[in-house]
Amino acid sequence: MNTKIVTKPGLIKNFFSLKESAIIILILLLTLITQISNPVFLSGDNIVNILRSCSFVLITALGMTFVMIAGGIDLSVGSVVGLGGVVTGFALQAGLGSFVSVALGLIAGMIIGFVNGYFIVKFNIAPMIMTLGTLYIARGIIYVLTEGVPVYPLPSEFQAIEQGTFLYLPNICWIAFVLAGIAYFMLTKTTTGRAIYAVGGNVEAARLSGIKVEKIKYLIYTISALFSALTGIFMASRLASAQAGAGTGFEMTVIAAVVIGGTSTFGGIGTIFGTVIGVLFTNMLSNAMTILKISLYWQTLVIGLILVFAVAVDGYKRSKSKAS
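RE: above sequence
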């Protein structure tokens, strides 16, 4: 009796089958080149700095991944970052305590997210236009409340939320890791996650299959705003003050990381792992160029070029799949 021996694909073949393999290779090359040029790059302190900066971006990027997989976009996240921190800061100064103050900051963000979802669903406003409007609304609320003045001092127990460490890493790194795990589980192991992919892939087909598209849209924009407000609260804890300008331009950083990580701008495609890799790459690139004393202007230019390339590749893949 002849038996056929089946061998499992090798590790290399498995690696290159990953959608994120190209960006992982770029990370390895970037690490090698920068470390050779300046050994400080892989020092313990710098690794912690990279992971800390990654964590701030990642928390917001997780919410953005939900939105973009569902075929939307959220330009308001930067302003919601600022709003979450400011509301929490004022609540702390009013003596409400860290728990209640943080809760109020999160609720303020979630209200903006719900408003985004409501108007997008009920009035059929394009997500880009709606969230651009709430970007200005939330930022306007911040400046009305603060008049541009930082909210400080903040209690030491609140500062310890971000500034504390566990196993040599800042608390925010561990929280970002846990949130990424929760987001991964939700997208891959729940019916809600499958519904989010379905809505992004073909909204009408999703509706006909019984998915409540409107509820999904409410959910994703509320999650995005919740995570953004949480980022702002961590920023306020880190700086020991709530800055009126916190989060300005942050939406572009987040969107770039998510798209570079493989999430499609057309919806229906994306992973939490890809977002983590995208966030890691963009932050490592900025850190590496800073260590190599490359101008900030060049850093912005390089990330912009990589973003355009990632979008172009995504568009090419989709047009090719349609043609076939």
